[in-house]
Specification:
123 residues, mainly beta, seven-stranded mixed β-sheet
């Protein structure tokens, strides 16, 4: 089981940017595909973006394409989610998790989860 810790959330104004980090407790992270998910108040958790273990395969949800960029640094045991031009409706708790990666299919199910980081988009 891989332990994951998210960080980088906070309060940002509409149109602003944040970079989230998902850091693993073990270098074994390099063997796992990782996904970012979010859960807004009153809504179900949804997949946002996922990346394969090498960083060569990337998937994005339709609603975040062009705004979010996922990347990873296996030496640092970290997966990043760069979020730009944030609208208010992106307010949610953002989670990372290990996932099964499929080409051109957004990850929908996570296995080992972090505790989440709150992102609030508000003026």
């Amino acid at each position: 089981q891989l332990q994951l810790v998210e960080s980088g959330g906070g309060l940002v104004q509409p149109g602003g940017s944040l970079r989230l980090s998902c850091t693993a407790s073990s270098s074994q992270m390099s063997k796992y595909a990782i996904g970012w998910f979010r859960q807004a108040p009153g809504k179900e958790r949804e997949g946002v973006s996922c990346i394969n273990s090498w960083g060569s395969g990337l998937n994005y949800g339709d609603s975040v394409k062009g705004r979010f960029t996922i990347s990873r640094d296996n030496d640092k045991k970290t997966v990043y989610l760069q979020m730009n031009n944030l609208p208010r409706e992106y307010t949610a708790v953002y989670y990372c998790a290990t996932v099964n990666f499929q080409e051109e299919v957004l990850c929908a199910r996570g296995f080992d989860w972090g505790q989440g980081t709150q992102v609030t988009v508000s003026s």
